[in-house]
Design brief:
The complex is a heterodimer of chains A (about 700) and B (about 400).
Chain A (H helix, E strand, L loop, with lengths): L15 H22 L4 H18 L6 H24 L4 H13 L6 H21 L4 H28 L2 E2 L7 H6 L7 H18 L31 H10 L13 E3 L10 E6 L6 E6 L1 E2 L3 E3 L5 E5 L5 E3 L8 E8 L6 E2 L4 E6 L4 E5 L4 E2 L9 E7 L5 H7 L19 H10 L6 H15 L15 H9 L4 H14 L4 E7 L3 E3 L4 E5 L3 E9 L3 E5 L33 H45 L3 H4 L2 H16 L10 H7 L4 H12 L6 H16 L1
Antiparallel strand pairs in A: 2-6, 3-9, 3-17, 4-15, 5-6, 7-12, 8-11, 9-14, 10-13, 11-14, 12-13, 15-18, 16-17, 18-19
Helix pairs in contact in A: 1-2, 1-5, 1-6, 2-4, 3-4, 4-5, 5-6, 11-14, 12-14, 13-14, 17-19, 18-19, 19-20
Chain B lengths: L3 H20 L2 H22 L5 E7 L4 E5 L3 E10 L5 E9 L9 E9 L4 E9 L4 E4 L3 E5 L8 E5 L4 E5 L9 H7 L8 E12 L11 H7 L3 E6 L6 E5 L13 H18 L4 E5 L13 H10 L20 E6 L5 H11 L3 E7 L15 H9 L3 E5 L5 H5 L16
Parallel strand pairs in B: 2-10, 13-14, 13-15, 15-16, 16-17
Antiparallel strand pairs in B: 1-3, 3-6, 4-5, 4-8, 7-10, 8-9, 11-12
Helix pairs in contact in B: 1-2, 5-6
Classes of the chains: A alpha+beta (about 700), B alpha/beta (about 400).
Chain lengths: ~700, ~400
């Protein structure tokens, strides 16, 4: 039977096991951050500081450690400055560095149980930062380890608390020593718990509705902005190299040669598996770049260099001319490689959030900026879904675009058999939409995909060679053929380049877009519906209109099922509007409150310092000062602070260990004559005894 | 019942969910689901945490015990898990009602009861005060797993302990000895109510006194033989009226019970029939000549009453020639009745507890000394016993009986 020990969450934490578990959990969080950012130095540096912090905090758990606390306070503010500098100077992942530094610094203050909980909370925040940067499922391993350590912490904490609360601990006689030590055995049906969580957690994950509205804060890079004026020229960071590779080599490249001012159908080559960007989007889509409208038999180009410049509407927000629609969705692009000066976007963009002074829209709806985009750039786009009903398209028919460009242009090189094929394929089609579908389906069904079609023969039409000679090719051959056939029938069409959707990772929520996702497809102009995308390339999506906005993790699996739509987007948008309206006054109030707190804190500090200042006649004597300083130190050491209403002797009666020193203090403070040598000797004796104790 | 920890988990899950919504980062939904999923899983498991637990309590070797005040009683509490799933992190609150107040509650922590296994808690308790004690239910508390929920339930483990009052062995009591010295101490047959033995049936014996068990055993008529009660015996009268609080261990009433037990035991040891009289309003008083254990069983249970009830007992009807009266709360009204009894020829010993000498006495607490003085003046042997460890010496002033032994009690 042991005595019941009373302790609070703010009492010094004596448990070494709990500290080890917190330390381990924080290390795992550091490791997760180092892994997702690939800043491997973060882990050893953070762990070293963390270990020092934990060691110090454990050793000094009964002391105040004012100096170290002050140092920690200063270091934390330095870390904030480091974070701000990192954000605006373009350091890699400043938020991750900040999270690690703060967690490591705060570990010097992990004295109580409450502090340990805070330490775990900081570890969780580290994981949060890592989660925002994670692009693969390896993060799940760190997450599970962290959670396991957290639960182990709770288990051990409960066990130790119960032991402390109880006057007796009863253990089964047969319990092995090693299990008794860790108390981890017998989780009360641990297998059942594992089974329950294995069922419940995925269920919650699956049936948690997902927000697809406009978030309060759009993810964008702050280390830009791009000051250059937008240009009509497409600046592809690796285009010269690609052109060499593209003609005669089977070495895969990373940049599609279509991302340029013109696209030469005679180029050949493959693209690598290099990850180009991650796209976070609640809706499936192709990520569109821009469109070519002019074809000369071998080369696609844009017939107009006109750009419509758009200036920022504030907070890096650019409003495009498209009318907003109800089913808009937000996409965020995280570039992992240098990219051309093109802002990729799914659907029909309404707003762009990008750190630049101005952006521009070309005649094909492509969004341009002044410079190529460096890896690490983040921007967001709000778009409406690009979707239409086949019956409506049939009824509407096609029409000439209002932008004044000739989308029916055909070169002289078009052969008669090409023209004849267009009519032959659409002989049974009664509407333009049916003709489009007939041609697309013919290309999908009749021509196998081949990364390396034979070289383009001199003085031949690329479309003719594809349709009748090679009868295989890559996306640009399919697209060119479809456009030529459509234009021959008087249907306006254009050649679009961009990226396919990429592979969707349900855990991370990102589309992983690789170099070989670079793609070309067709847009056909329908009366009243604008440009509608079609894809004639086998292995891709024939109708690449924007998918439904997913409000559940597996929404796409139930695309044909009429699931109830939760109006969360609207609610959140309303909340966002309220927040935006309130954010200004709120910031003022918060700022005023912070100033008030600083002033109040400063006043408290001043009063405290002033109260500690002894009268001048005491301060003038060094021995009196020594005695009073020793008295203050002893109060801290014994955690026996004297109340303002107490006399020194009253205080000493409460704390007999201070009685001798209190006597010295009385003499030093109240005897008119200065202290003599005997008093100094007694003070030294007191100190000596304290040291021995 | 959810704990603040469960609320924290829920808030964290919602926070991560909102951040997931805002950032469209799938991992945040995963973290949110992990945190939120632990709550129902923990609830489900916590609901079953106390199932299948049974307990037995062994007091001094059996389920029930009888001991004396001040004796040490070993108690063994066995908790079993009848499930095929072990029980973990179990907190047990055992309340031992016969222990002194500050030691009454024992909080025990059981990290693990193995599946279909048991653990046991053994402890010794010093019986603090006489009485019949029934153990209240055990309170079982479990926060497993991970402290998100707390389940608390009582577990009834019936056990009973009868604690007899403290009995001090008087070696000599002059007042008794003087009055009873000439009396025949050996029992004689007669027409009393105390059974002395059996004998063959004789014509004229009452058929109601036939001892049928002996008849069956011997095949002849056997009848019970009763003691001759015409000789003087002792009637012990306990005044139960005690208008003050009796919550404390050291009250005049409790001490009156001790005095009564010691006097009764002494008289029994001397071989005199003992009769007990007390207010029988709520607790029947055993009739006839009592053995010591019957006296102690009554005294273990007796509690004070709120209304005076001594005078009706002093009418003289049914009393033995020698009467010992123990009064925990002396008051002037009893003087007349006692003197009247004395004048009718009864030999009286009056033991007045002096409440004013006891702890927690107030200004309204009566002083027994003046009453004792009046009784003594009337020729009644009277003791005014004050609070203190020397109350035995006050009964037998020569100090020869400081031996504190307890008689053997047959349960």
């Amino acid at each position: 039977v042991t005595g019941v020990q009373h302790s609070t969450r703010k009492s010094p934490e004596e448990s070494g096991r709990l500290r080890v578990l917190v330390f381990a959990a924080q290390i795992v969080a550091f490791l997760a951050l180092a892994y997702v950012t690939q800043l491997w130095w973060l882990w050893p540096v953070g762990t070293l500081i963390l270990a020092a912090g934990h060691f110090y905090a454990y050793r000094s758990r009964h002391r105040r450690g004012s100096l170290v606390r002050l140092g920690t306070f200063i270091a934390l503010h330095a870390a904030i400055l480091w974070l701000l500098a990192g954000i605006f100077q373009g350091q890699p992942y400043p938020q991750a560095q900040f999270a690690v530094i703060v967690t490591a610094l705060v570990s010097f203050e992990l004295r109580s149980r409450l502090n340990l909980y805070s330490g775990l909370g900081l570890g969780l925040i580290n994981l949060y930062v890592a989660a925002t940067l994670s692009r693969d499922t390896v993060f799940g391993v760190f997450l599970l380890i962290f959670l396991g350590l957290w639960l182990a912490f709770l288990w051990v904490a409960d066990s130790e608390d119960a032991t402390r609360r109880s006057s007796v601990v009863i253990r089964p006689q047969s319990e092995p020593d090693r299990l008794r030590r860790f108390h981890l055995r017998g989780l009360g049906g641990r297998m059942q718990f594992v089974a329950a969580t294995a069922i419940i957690i995925p269920l919650i994950f699956l049936f948690t509705p997902r927000f697809a509205g406009r978030p309060l804060f759009m993810p964008i890079s702050l280390q830009l902005p791009i000051r250059s004026n937008p240009t009509s020229q497409v600046i592809n960071p690796a285009l010269p190299l690609i052109r060499l590779q593209g003609t005669a080599t089977d070495q895969p490249g990373e940049y599609y040669y279509g991302f340029a001012d013109s696209l030469d159908l005679s180029y050949r080559g493959t693209l690598s598996d290099t990850l180009m960007m991650y796209v976070s989007s609640p809706a499936w889509s192709y990520w569109r770049g821009y469109a070519y409208d002019h074809y000369d038999g071998r080369l696609w180009s844009q017939s107009s260099n006109e750009l419509q410049t758009i200036r920022s509407a504030g907070m890096a927000r650019f409003s495009l001319n498209n009318e907003p629609a109800d089913d808009s969705f937000v996409q965020s692009f995280y570039l992992t490689q240098d990219m051309p000066n093109i802002i990729w976007a799914g659907g029909e963009p309404i707003e762009v959030f990008f750190a630049a002074d101005e952006i521009a829209v070309d005649t094909s709806g492509g969004i341009r900026i002044g410079e190529s985009l460096p890896a690490g750039t983040v921007y967001s786009v709000i778009s409406t879904r690009q979707t239409s009903d086949p019956d409506e398209l049939r009824a509407a028919g096609t029409a000439v675009s209002a932008d004044g460009l000739d989308y029916l242009q055909l070169p002289e090189t078009i052969t008669e058999r090409t023209r004849a094929l267009a009519y032959e394929l659409t002989a049974d089609a009664s509407t333009d939409y049916d003709r489009v579908i007939a041609i697309r389906d013919h290309l999908l069904a009749s021509y196998p995909y081949d990364f390396f079609p034979p070289p383009q023969a001199p003085n031949t039409d690329a479309v003719d060679q594809f349709l009748f000679v090679d009868q295989r090719g890559v996306c640009e051959q399919y697209v060119s053929a479809m456009i030529v056939l459509l234009r021959e029938l008087g249907i306006p069409a254009r050649f679009v380049v961009g990226y396919g959707s990429g592979e969707y990772n349900r855990f991370t929520g990102y589309y992983e877009v690789r170099a070989n996702d670079a793609h070309a497809w067709v847009e056909v102009h329908f009366d009243g519906h604008g440009w509608v995308p079609f894809d004639p390339t086998p292995g891709w999506v024939g109708n690449p209109e924007t998918g439904p906005v997913n409000r559940w993790v597996f929404s796409d699996m139930f695309a044909g099922v009429d699931l109830p739509q939760l109006p969360l987007g609207n609610i959140a948008s309303a909340g966002a509007a309220v927040f935006n309206a309130a954010v200004g006054p709120l910031l003022v109030v918060i700022g005023a409150a912070m100033v008030g707190m600083i002033v109040y804190g400063g006043r408290l500090l001043w009063l405290r310092l002033d109260a500690r200042r002894a009268p001048a006649w005491i301060r003038s004597d060094p021995l009196r000062r020594q005695i009073l300083a020793e008295y203050r130190r002893a109060q801290r050491r014994y955690r026996a602070r004297r109340a303002p209403s107490q006399t020194v002797q009253e205080h000493a009666r409460q704390h007999p260990e201070l009685a001798e020193l209190a006597h010295l203090v009385d003499i030093a403070a109240y005897r008119p004559s200065p202290p003599d040598e005997s008093l100094l000797t007694r003070l030294q004796l007191w100190r000596h005894r304290q040291r021995r104790r | 019942m959810p704990t603040t920890r469960a609320a924290t988990f829920l808030i964290a899950a919602i926070t991560f969910y909102l951040f997931g919504n805002q950032t469209q980062i799938g991992w945040l939904y995963v973290i949110s689901a992990l945190l939120a999923g632990l709550i129902p899983a923990a609830y489900w498991l916590n609901r079953r945490a106390l199932r299948g637990i049974t307990a037995e309590r062994h007091t001094g070797g059996g389920l029930h015990a009888e001991i004396h005040e001040g004796d040490t009683l070993p108690i063994r509490l066995v908790l079993r898990c009848g499930h095929r799933i072990s029980v973990a992190q179990l907190e047990v609150r055992e309340t031992c009602p016969l222990a002194e107040p500050q030691r009454r509650v024992i909080d025990a922590y059981i990290p693990l009861i193995p599946a279909r296994g048991a653990v046991q808690l053994e402890y010794d308790i010093v019986a603090d005060r006489r009485g019949l004690y029934r153990f209240p239910p055990l309170w079982l508390t479990s926060r497993t797993p991970f402290g998100l929920f707390r389940r608390r339930a009582p577990l009834d483990v019936p056990s009973r302990v009868l604690v007899y009052p403290e009995v001090r062995r008087l070696e000599r009591l002059d007042l008794f000895d003087r009055q009873l010295a000439a009396q025949q101490v050996f029992p004689r047959t007669g027409t009393g109510s105390e059974v002395l033995g059996v004998r063959p049936y004789r014509a004229g014996d009452s058929p109601r006194h036939i001892h049928w068990r002996s008849v069956a055993r011997s095949g002849q008529l056997i009848t019970k033989e009763f003691a001759e009660e015409t000789r003087p015996g002792l009637t012990l009268i306990l005044d139960r009226w005690f208008p003050a609080s009796n919550d404390d261990k050291h009250t005049a009433f409790e001490w009156a019970v001790k005095v009564a037990a010691s006097l009764g035991e002494y008289a029994q040891r001397q071989g005199y029939p003992l009769h007990l009289r007390a207010d029988a309003a709520d607790l029947p008083v055993p009739g006839g000549a009592l053995p010591t254990d019957a006296l102690l069983q009554y005294l273990a249970r007796v509690q004070p009453t709120v209304a005076p009830g001594l005078e009706p007992l002093l009418t003289g009807q049914g009393l033995q020639s020698f009467v010992a009266v123990v009064v925990p709360w002396p008051h002037a009204e009893i003087i007349e009745a006692l003197i009247a009894l004395h004048q009718r020829g009864f030999t009286l010993l009056v033991a007045l507890l002096n409440p004013v000498t006891f702890p927690n006495a107030s200004s309204s607490t009566p002083d027994a000394v003046p009453i004792a003085g009046e009784l003594k003046a009337a020729g009644i042997d009277t003791l005014a016993l004050r609070f203190g460890p020397d109350w035995m010496a006050q009964i037998q002033p020569d100090g020869a009986a400081q031996v504190l032994e307890r008689p053997e009690i047959t349960p």
